[in-house]
């Protein structure tokens, strides 16, 4: 039973498994990829909202004053950063919270909550100094982003960016003073580890789906390969039946023709066709019954099979006629086969109305590789006819001189 389960067509198994894997992985991976992007967009919206809330707690007038280094005092710095520190302490998932101003196309840090001793965080943060220039490592994806912020847009990077402080998804929102004038902007940074932690459960789902897809593909491959094997096995079986004679299990006429032509294609030095015909089978049937006739047919078939080499083709061509098609068989060898068969099947018939149980044989040997099956068969049949004419229970070799 277990062995039976292993009967599959290996080539079909791998082909179908690979095709099913490709289809299923596409079905699994494309939505996963799309939803991963969608989740990043959700995170970007979240970062934008946090940046907007952070901007709303900053006193725009004080921040505007601090933009001029001439106004800088530690007290003013503390007053500007204090509400952001409270905000940041309330949401420790945010990595950095700071404000900036643009000077000559570059961003400079103004205040940074990391610089305050009042910030409640467990992280080790690296504070930026007042008016320290911002250095990005990655290329800015949107070179006009400072302009867009100045125009009132909340700008969130398309994806995570590396700078000298780490790898962050950053959002920036403009700050306005009480007269509605643009007065720098707030920045909030979310660390990539925060994102990876959020993504870890989705990654587990992704790998689970991929493993599931591969398993299903293997199962589909197995079922199809098993079915293919089963169908092929049945076709082979039908073919085996279609070229065999049921009674004797020798090849039938169709099988004999096919294998003889294959043997002729090998173009060996000589071929022999030996036709064996039962003597007076009608008499055996009439006197002893059809079953006895069958029994004698089977006996002749077994004798023929045991009198030739394994590679020689043996067939029952019709009711009482048999064919031996032997490759690389000269006249001496063909004659020896005929003698052997005659000796083994002959016996006297005790009933006086019949003389014997036996066969007659016609032999035709073709020297050379250019033999034609039809011609050899016809000539062997002529020789067989002569054997019958001469009194049966004998073999006759086809003689081209006599035939001519
Ligand atoms: N028992 C049996 N008889 C068959 C079978 N096939 C054909 N026969 C019979 O074999 C006989 C062949 O008759 P013929 O061709 O005249 O040949 P024969 O009686 O053997 O006489 P000769 O060949 O001239 O010696 C017929 O009576 C068929 O009915 C079979 O499968 N089983």
Automatic annotation (TrEMBL):
<protein>
    <recommendedName>
        <fullName>diguanylate cyclase</fullName>
        <ecNumber>2.7.7.65</ecNumber>
    </recommendedName>
</protein>
<feature type="transmembrane region" description="Helical">
    <location>
        <begin position="12"/>
        <end position="34"/>
    </location>
</feature>
<dbReference type="Pfam" id="PF00990">
    <property type="entry name" value="GGDEF"/>
</dbReference>
<dbReference type="InterPro" id="IPR029151">
    <property type="entry name" value="Sensor-like_sf"/>
</dbReference>
<dbReference type="InterPro" id="IPR029787">
    <property type="entry name" value="Nucleotide_cyclase"/>
</dbReference>
<dbReference type="GO" id="GO:0052621">
    <property type="term" value="F:diguanylate cyclase activity"/>
</dbReference>
<feature type="transmembrane region" description="Helical">
    <location>
        <begin position="204"/>
        <end position="225"/>
    </location>
</feature>
<dbReference type="InterPro" id="IPR000160">
    <property type="entry name" value="GGDEF_dom"/>
</dbReference>
<keyword id="KW-0472">Membrane</keyword>
<dbReference type="InterPro" id="IPR043128">
    <property type="entry name" value="Rev_trsase/Diguanyl_cyclase"/>
</dbReference>
<dbReference type="GO" id="GO:1902201">
    <property type="term" value="P:negative regulation of bacterial-type flagellum-dependent cell motility"/>
</dbReference>
<dbReference type="InterPro" id="IPR050469">
    <property type="entry name" value="Diguanylate_Cyclase"/>
</dbReference>
<keyword id="KW-1133">Transmembrane helix</keyword>
<keyword id="KW-0812">Transmembrane</keyword>
<dbReference type="GO" id="GO:0043709">
    <property type="term" value="P:cell adhesion involved in single-species biofilm formation"/>
</dbReference>
<dbReference type="GO" id="GO:0005886">
    <property type="term" value="C:plasma membrane"/>
</dbReference>
<feature type="domain" description="GGDEF">
    <location>
        <begin position="269"/>
        <end position="400"/>
    </location>
</feature>
């Amino acid at each position: 039973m277990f062995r039976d389960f292993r009967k599959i067509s290996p080539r079909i198994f791998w082909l179908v498994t690979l095709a099913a894997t490709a289809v299923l992985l596409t079905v699994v991976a494309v939505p996963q990829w799309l939803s991963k992007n969608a989740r990043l967009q959700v995170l970007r919206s979240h970062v934008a909202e946090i940046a907007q809330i952070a901007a709303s707690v900053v006193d725009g007038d004080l921040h505007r004053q601090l933009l001029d280094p001439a106004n800088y005092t530690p007290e003013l710095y503390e007053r500007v950063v204090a509400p952001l520190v409270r905000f940041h302490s309330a949401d420790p998932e945010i990595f950095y919270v700071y404000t900036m101003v643009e000077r000559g196309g570059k961003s400079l840090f103004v205040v940074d909550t990391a610089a305050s001793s009042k910030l409640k965080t467990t992280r080790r943060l690296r504070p930026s100094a007042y008016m320290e220039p911002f250095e990005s490592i990655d290329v800015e994806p949107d070179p006009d982003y400072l302009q867009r912020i100045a125009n009132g847009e909340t700008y969130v990077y398309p994806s995570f960016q590396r700078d000298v402080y780490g790898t962050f998804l950053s959002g920036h929102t403009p700050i306005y003073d009480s007269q509605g004038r643009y007065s720098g902007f707030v920045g909030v940074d979310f660390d990539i580890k925060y994102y990876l932690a959020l993504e870890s459960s989705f990654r587990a789902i992704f790998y689970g789906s991929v493993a599931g897809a591969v398993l299903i593909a293997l199962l589909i491959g197995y079922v199809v390969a098993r079915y293919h094997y089963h169908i092929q096995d049945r076709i082979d079986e039908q073919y085996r039946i279609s070229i065999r004679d049921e009674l004797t299990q020798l090849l039938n006429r169709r099988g004999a023709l096919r294998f003889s032509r294959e043997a002729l294609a090998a173009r060996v030095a000589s071929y022999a066709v030996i036709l064996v015909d039962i003597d007076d089978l009608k008499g055996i049937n009439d006197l002893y019954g059809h079953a006895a006739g069958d029994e004698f047919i089977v006996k002749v078939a077994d004798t023929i099979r045991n009198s030739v080499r394994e590679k020689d083709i043996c067939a029952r061509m019709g009711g009482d006629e048999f064919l031996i098609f032997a490759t690389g068989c000269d006249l001496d060898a063909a004659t020896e086969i005929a003698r052997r068969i005659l000796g083994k099947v002959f016996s006297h018939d005790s009933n006086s109305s019949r003389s014997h149980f036996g066969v007659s044989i016609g032999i035709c040997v073709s020297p050379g590789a250019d033999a034609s099956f039809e011609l050899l068969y016809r000539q062997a049949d002529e020789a067989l006819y002569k054997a019958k004419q001469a009194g049966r229970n004998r073999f006759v070799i086809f003689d081209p001189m006599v035939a001519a």
